[in-house]
Amino acid sequence: MKFIKAADAGAPKTEEILSPRTIIWRRFRRNKIAMISLYVITVLILLAVFAPMIAPYERDDINLQYREQPPSAEYLFGTDRNGRDLFTRNLHGGRISLSVGIVASSIQMVIGVVLGSLAGYFGKWVDAVIMRITDMVLSFPFLALAITGAAILGPSIYNTMIIIGLLSWTETCRLVRGQFLSIKQMEYIEATRSLGFNEIRTIWRHMLPNAMAPILISATLIMANAVLIEAALSYLGLGVQPPIPSWGNILEPARSMDVLMRMWWLWLPPGLLIFISVLSINLIGDGLRDALDPRLKN
User: Fold this and answer.
1) What band does 45 get if pLDDT is binned at 50, 70 and 90?
2) What is the rounded distance in angstroms from the CA atom of residue 146 to the CA atom of residue 160?
3) Measured between alpha carbons, how far is 218 from 285 in angstroms, rounded to an integer?
4) Does the first or last residue of the chain, that is N or C, have fewer Cβ atoms within 10 Å of its Cβ?
5) Tens-place pLDDT, residues 99-132
6) CA atoms within 13 A on the CB side of 170
7) 30-55+79-291 has which CATH code?
8) pTM reported for the whole predicted model
């Protein structure tokens, strides 16, 4: 006959202590759509990174004998009007489109976070000046400003990144300002002031980490938007210029009704890639929003 020690029988079960990152990851993992989207965008990024090794042909190889060929075993996505392999072009186009999206969104996040932090923390005339500049930028139609900027600076990859980054920071700025206005009323921020902490340290070490949840969610939406804007500018001939491929300028032949009706392989693959990448990034953002919501259970 087995006996159970009284101490063991009455001992409470030890609860698992989880770090905030582990809790967020577990919540995110429960969202199946967000996880599938994460896998999809990861595959697209890997295909873009390793495009030179995966692509069956050189990016700019021209073979006029096989121009505008439909998809086949030799040319998986068919060929364009210059006889270039569209599978290869779309792989390399992903490198450009996703890179522009990442860099442009990084630029606008940095500008928006810095200006929003300063406006929310210092308030008064600093807040007034930054908010009036924000209102001024928002008062102009974005696409009109982007087209004007591209016409002045000239169409190129780097100019496209700069234009998107410099014109898209306003929403982030407003978001961060609102978060800081709320956070700076907290008791622990008052304590840092009474202890004489440096203002930059207070912003960087104590306030910004507590505002990161909405900033991260906003960053995903901003990146998706940047990919779309790059595609629009390149489609109009004001973004990335041929022969460098991007999903936007590969779509350019779709301006012709004849191409739309008879040569679907020239525009459908890049259009689907833009759609899938933007949708996946947005769904990841939705998953992050749910995972970072403190009202949800672990």
Assistant:
1) very high
2) 9
3) 8
4) N
5) 998 999 999 999 999 999 888 888 888 889 999 9
6) 15
7) 1.10.3720.10
8) 0.83
